[in-house]
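Sample pair:
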Amino acid sequence: MRFGKILVLALFTQLCLGCAMFEGWKGPIDPDATPQADVQPVYHDAVVNVVEPDPFPPQPIEAGPLMEVEAPPAPITPPAPVAVPAPEPVVHRPAPVVPAPAPVVVETTYTVAKGDTLQKISQRLFGTTRRWPDIFFMNKDTLASPDVIRVGQVLRVPPAK
C-alpha cells in the first residue's frame, strides 16, 4: 500500500510541475528556439500497472506412491427366518343394537280467545314475546299467515325451554 501512495505522489508532482519531462527545463517551450546539443533528455519512468508478487505461488503436485487398499470384508448373511405360528383370527361380533326409547312428547294445545295474537299467546305461556315464531311453525299446516288466527282455533304449542 505504501508503494501505491509513493506512486500517486510522484505522478501528482509531475502534473504540478507542468509535465516537465526533461531535466533542466526552465519555462515554456519556445517553438522557434533551436534545441541545445549539450542537454540530453532524461525520461522519468511512469508505472501504470503495479503487480505485486504472489506470496503463495502455486506449487506443482507430484504423484506419490500408490497405497494398497484391503479388500472389503465379506457381507454378513442374516440368520435364517424362524417360523412363527400365525395368531388365531379374532372374531368381532357387533354388540346388539337396542333401540333408544322414543322421547315422550307431551303436546300442549291452546285455544285462541278473542283479541289473541301469536305474540300475546307467547307472552302468556312462555313469559316472552320472542317465541311466537315457534308457535307459528308448529301450526304451519293450519295457519296461512302469522297475522291471521281465528277465535276458537286450537293451536299446538312447543314445550317450554
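Residues 1-24+40-53 form one domain.
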